[in-house]
Design goal:
Layout (H helix, E strand, L loop, with lengths): L3 H15 L2 H24 L3 H20 L3 H28 L2 H31 L4 H11 L13
Helix pairs in contact: 2-3, 2-5, 3-4, 4-5, 5-6
């Protein structure tokens, strides 16, 4: 019989394995936001291990977001996102040293704003795809299966 933790882990693994690239991108943002908030809570409640774990995990996700940028397709926008991700990593590094909640709140706000922007871009892409006559069904299925905004190549689902 599976315990609750094993069931939850299995459920999450299945979610990742069956997710579209767009869904994976949003999951990455959700995770980074959750871990930044965990770090804030760790600082506020004097729980250094919670702070360190949250910052470490958030930094790993932001680094992955940076690493999956497609600079050839994304051009200047991808470079701007990369600069923003590096700024967030610097802020988290400093917050880890000096327990700066304001630095982490800046990162939380940036991640939340970016997540919302990607959600809007994904929705616009879906609407435009479904409004496209001539082969819309086939094109819509192909787009929903593979293409997040063109600046990313999300990590493999196995990651």
């Amino acid at each position: 019989m599976m315990n609750a933790y094993a069931q939850q882990k299995s459920y999450r693994q299945n979610q990742i394995l069956t997710a579209s690239p767009e869904q994976i991108l949003i999951m990455l943002y959700d995770g980074a936001i959750r871990f930044v908030r965990q770090a804030i809570e760790g600082i506020e409640n004097d729980k250094p291990s919670r702070k360190l774990e949250g910052i470490s995990r958030a930094m790993a996700i932001v680094a992955e977001l940076s690493n999956t940028l497609d600079r050839e397709v994304g051009g200047e926008m991808a470079e701007n996102l990369d600069s923003l991700y590096h700024f967030m990593i610097r802020e988290m590094t400093e917050a880890r040293k000096d327990n700066s909640v304001p630095r982490l709140k800046v990162v939380d706000d940036l991640l939340s704003d970016l997540r919302e922007t990607w959600m809007e871009a994904i929705e616009i892409n879906r609407r435009e795809t479904s409004a496209n006559p001539g082969g819309a069904g086939q094109k819509q299925q192909a787009d929903s299966d593979q293409e997040p905004p063109q600046h990313y190549r999300p990590l493999s689902a196995a990651g």
